[in-house]
Backbone:
């Protein structure tokens, strides 16, 4: 007869037997909770002006809020320790015989061990959390709202622990050896993240048009790969997409509420999977590499195929010719053979088993070869894909290197929401009804322009082929498309276009002049962001100043600038020299959207700025006390000439433009001459600072030449 009390007795005995485990937890959590809280609050009390928030906000929103992501690293380590140590007896035949001889069902035996491992973490964690709450209360940093933050804090970290803990238990159950169980835990814990990285690497290498925007935490999470391993799921829980709306940006550095329920379901599924695998595991599996023979070929394929491509990529990266397939293929073949032999030795625990299971070897080899063929020859048509007009809801276009206006906004006390120009456009632009967009996309996909790289040799600079290729590629510019489809998906592609081609520049001009493009490419014009700016930072060719404006003056300036900017054409950008830039500065000196150009055609904006205290048309004269040095850019030798003659200085001043202006539009504007670099010096006590300039095309004074 099975004793009901034996179940709880097993839990108590396991806690006593592994008392070292909660002790380790207690020490580790003390260091990462109480000690860190004391350090942080002490620093805030000593330097209150260095923080944009008070102690109460820090404890509620940061320590018991946004900091959960960092603590999850420690939690996962604790889960691994509890899981592996709790079910290590499965790897010893004598211990299995002992446990299975007890008058308790296998279900009760599993759940007693499982619950014991949870308690060994959960009890120390709750105790330390409550102590931290007491420390916060003792420093007047506790509020009623903090209670709910603590409850969420404990609940989410328990979910993280249970997910990682269940995977560790599954790894112990699937194997019959401690070392292999540890390796298996690492694979199961991070497998989907590993696949995501590999997909990114291979797509970048084989597909010219591959582009990704809005990916969470770099390359660790992708919408194209199912997040089924704990690492990917935890990263997704505690991260937000890069390209996001204002409402989503307000939640920055918090957990993803919409993902919590999916996370809970995953915890339940992994816990039940651990239970059913335990029920099916044979006692005789102790000492084997893999407890279930049927899982062996699956595990081999899951490990050998992706790892072979990682090794292939490694060889291609360390070779002198990174774009060639020679070393990639060598690494692929070499890595595949070595991995197959190694896996056989691990599973057999005997070197004599290195060349067993030849059918599995052939099957995996065919899979590796087929994948290479699909990638190499673009069998799926990835690079040439352009959706049909009937499939598209709207399209986002990022003409890269053309006025890249990033967005930089403080959304709360703890974070600044930053989107680079490409991410901002992909998130906010929706062009509809402009046939030039899809016509240019199809033209670029069909032409498949790509940069050609040469192996250097003595005299290559004089080779006609080399010269012709460089001259042609000098006009290549990148452009990205975000196809927002009717089925809810967004497909990204990036191409190279040739701006020396008349048809291409015509289509590009039509896109640049599109109202939806201008609105979606300029953060200042997006109505979703209602921000009061601290000041407006103005620059012209020689002067710069920050002017304070009242909210109504800011609105008038933005409205006036927008009206004139909407009339700006690509032809003007390419052929007209701008007068200067304006840039709006938000709270805590955060530059909002980058420098926006003011052209001579913006007469009302220029007049308004002059009324507010900054003259865009103001020039520097030789009488302003500046000296000038001119350096010839001959790439190897330094040849600098200084000028002090007033007439020569004035002639130079009349024909130069600040390199700060040329930076964002030099790829499209054709009025810069890069043969010389001009440095204008001011006296040390002068408020104006020295700056670098270049001559305008065809306006280099003869005495400089």
Residues:
């Amino acid at each position: 007869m099975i004793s009901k009390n034996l179940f709880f007795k097993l839990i108590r005995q396991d806690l006593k037997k592994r008392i070292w485990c909660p002790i380790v937890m207690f020490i580790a959590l003390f260091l990462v909770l109480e000690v860190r809280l004391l350090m942080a609050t002490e620093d805030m009390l000593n330097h209150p002006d260095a923080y944009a928030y008070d102690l109460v906000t820090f404890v509620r929103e940061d320590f018991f809020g946004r900091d959960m992501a960092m603590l999850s690293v420690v939690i996962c380590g604790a889960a691994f320790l509890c899981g592996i140590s709790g079910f290590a007896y499965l790897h010893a035949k004598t211990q299995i015989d002992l446990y299975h001889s007890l008058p308790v069902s296998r279900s009760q035996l599993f759940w007693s061990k499982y619950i014991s491992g949870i308690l060994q973490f959960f009890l120390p964690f709750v105790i330390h959390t409550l102590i931290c709450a007491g420390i916060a209360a003792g420093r007047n940093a506790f509020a009623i709202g903090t209670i709910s933050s603590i409850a969420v804090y404990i609940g989410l970290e328990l979910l993280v622990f249970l997910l990682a803990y269940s995977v560790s238990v599954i790894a112990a159950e699937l194997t019959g050896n401690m070392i292999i169980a540890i390796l298996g835990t690492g694979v199961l814990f991070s497998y989907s993240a590993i696949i995501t990285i590999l997909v990114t690497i291979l797509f970048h290498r084989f597909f010219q048009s591959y582009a990704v925007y809005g990916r969470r935490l770099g390359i660790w999470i992708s919408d194209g790969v199912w997040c089924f391993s704990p690492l990917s799921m935890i990263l997704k829980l505690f991260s937000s997409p890069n390209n996001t709306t204002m409402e989503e940006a307000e939640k920055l550095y918090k957990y993803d509420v919409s993902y919590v329920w999916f996370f809970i379901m995953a915890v339940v599924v992994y816990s039940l999977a651990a239970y059913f695998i335990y029920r099916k595991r044979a006692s005789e599996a102790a000492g084997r590499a893999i407890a279930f023979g049927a899982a062996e070929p699956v595990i081999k394929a899951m490990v050998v195929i992706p790892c072979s491509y990682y090794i292939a990529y490694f060889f291609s990266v360390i070779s002198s010719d990174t774009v060639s397939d020679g070393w990639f293929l060598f690494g692929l073949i070499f890595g595949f053979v070595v991995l197959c032999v190694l896996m056989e030795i691990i599973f057999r625990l005997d070197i004599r088993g290195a060349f067993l299971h030849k059918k599995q070897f052939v099957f995996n080899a065919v899979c590796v070869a087929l994948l290479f063929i699909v990638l190499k020859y673009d069998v799926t048509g990835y690079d040439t894909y352009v959706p049909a007009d009937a499939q598209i809801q709207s399209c986002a276009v990022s003409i890269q290197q053309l006025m890249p206006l990033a967005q930089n906004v403080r959304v709360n006390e703890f974070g600044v929401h930053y989107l680079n120009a490409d991410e901002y456009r992909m998130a906010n632009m929706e062009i509809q009804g402009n046939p030039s967009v899809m016509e240019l996309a199809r033209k670029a996909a069909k032409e498949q322009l790509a940069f050609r790289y040469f192996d250097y040799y003595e005299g290559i600079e004089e080779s006609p082929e080399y010269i012709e290729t460089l001259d042609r590629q000098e006009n290549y510019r990148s452009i990205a498309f975000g196809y927002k489809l009717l089925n809810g998906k967004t497909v990204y592609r990036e191409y190279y276009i040739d701006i020396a081609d008349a048809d291409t520049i015509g289509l590009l001009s039509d896109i640049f002049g599109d109202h939806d493009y201008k609105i979606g490419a300029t953060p200042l014009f997006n109505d979703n962001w209602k921000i009061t700016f601290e000041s407006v930072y103005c620059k012209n060719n020689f002067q710069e100043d920050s002017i304070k404006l009242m909210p109504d003056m800011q609105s008038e300036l933005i409205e006036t600038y927008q009206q004139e900017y909407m009339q700006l054409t690509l032809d003007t950008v390419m052929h007209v020299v701008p007068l200067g830039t304006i840039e709006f500065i938000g709270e805590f000196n955060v530059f909002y959207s980058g420098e926006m150009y003011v052209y001579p055609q913006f007469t009302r904006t220029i007049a308004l700025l002059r009324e507010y205290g900054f003259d865009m048309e103001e020039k520097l004269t030789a009488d302003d006390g500046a000296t000038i040095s001119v350096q010839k850019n001959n790439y190897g030798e330094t040849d600098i000439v200084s000028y002090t003659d007033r007439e020569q200085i004035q002639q130079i001043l009349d024909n130069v433009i600040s390199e700060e202006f040329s930076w964002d539009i030099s790829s499209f504007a054709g009025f810069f001459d890069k043969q010389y670099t001009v440095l204008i010096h001011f006296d040390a006590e002068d408020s104006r600072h020295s700056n670098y300039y270049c001559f305008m095309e065809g306006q280099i004074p003869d005495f400089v030449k």
